[in-house]
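Worked example 3 (structure in, sequence out).
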């Protein structure tokens, strides 16, 4: 068995510490704070906010429930467009989690969908406490045109974002590796993109430890 170098051992220990910090951060009791239907009703500027964005039915609410260990904290549905407002969640630990309306297809009148999209764009452009947006991409489908439009907006407003692949358990290992590589290549030259892509599954828990660690680090 090859001997582990001191640098590699230090890296392993550092990663283990990050994972544990993330676990403890999300072990706190998380609670629903409020729903925000319009940019005028946003809460006062305060704690750091991180937001989850993605196409309708990509699994944002399921991911939040898996991260916090609270079944039913964020409402889930098989109907695209169920989340219609900005939903705020907190554990009192210094970071607010925001579940955003899904963009793209939704089973709702066009006027209502347009108002959700306007709310999303206004929030992403103007929220000074927004530290990072986690853009959720269905691993089975990869980046789509409306995903790229959102990345363009985040790049233009210099809002840091990181790609999170959802439903990764639905792919075979080789298929998941291919999607990760293709996604990495697509965001390589994007100025606001975090280079690390996290593959997750709300059902199996895949990647949740890494995502918890990333979010907990933003509370420092």
């Amino acid at each position: 068995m090859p001997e582990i170098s001191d640098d590699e051992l230090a890296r392993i220990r550092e990663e283990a510490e990050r994972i544990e910090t993330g676990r403890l951060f999300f072990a706190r009791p998380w609670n629903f704070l409020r729903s925000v239907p319009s940019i005028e009703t946003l809460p006062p500027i305060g704690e750091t906010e991180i937001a989850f964005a993605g196409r309708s039915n990509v699994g944002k609410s399921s991911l939040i429930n898996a991260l916090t260990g609270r079944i039913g904290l964020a409402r889930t549905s098989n109907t695209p467009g169920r989340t219609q407002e900005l939903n705020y969640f907190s554990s009192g630990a210094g970071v607010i989690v925001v579940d955003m309306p899904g963009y793209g297809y939704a089973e709702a009148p066009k006027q209502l969908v347009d108002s959700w999209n306007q709310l999303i764009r206004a929030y992403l452009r103007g929220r000074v406490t927004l530290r990072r947006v986690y853009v959720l991409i269905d691993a089975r489908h990869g980046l789509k045109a409306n995903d790229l439009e959102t990345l363009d907006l985040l790049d233009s407003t210099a809002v840091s974002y990181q790609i999170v692949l959802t439903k990764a358990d639905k792919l075979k290992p080789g298929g998941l590796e291919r999607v990760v590589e293709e996604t990495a290549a697509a965001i390589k030259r994007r100025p606001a993109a975090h280079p690390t892509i996290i593959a997750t599954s709300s059902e199996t828990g895949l990647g949740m430890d890494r995502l918890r660690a990333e979010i907990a680090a933003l509370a420092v």
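Notes: Helices lie at 6-27, 60-68, 110-126, 145-156, 173-187, 208-217. The chain has one domain: 6-217.
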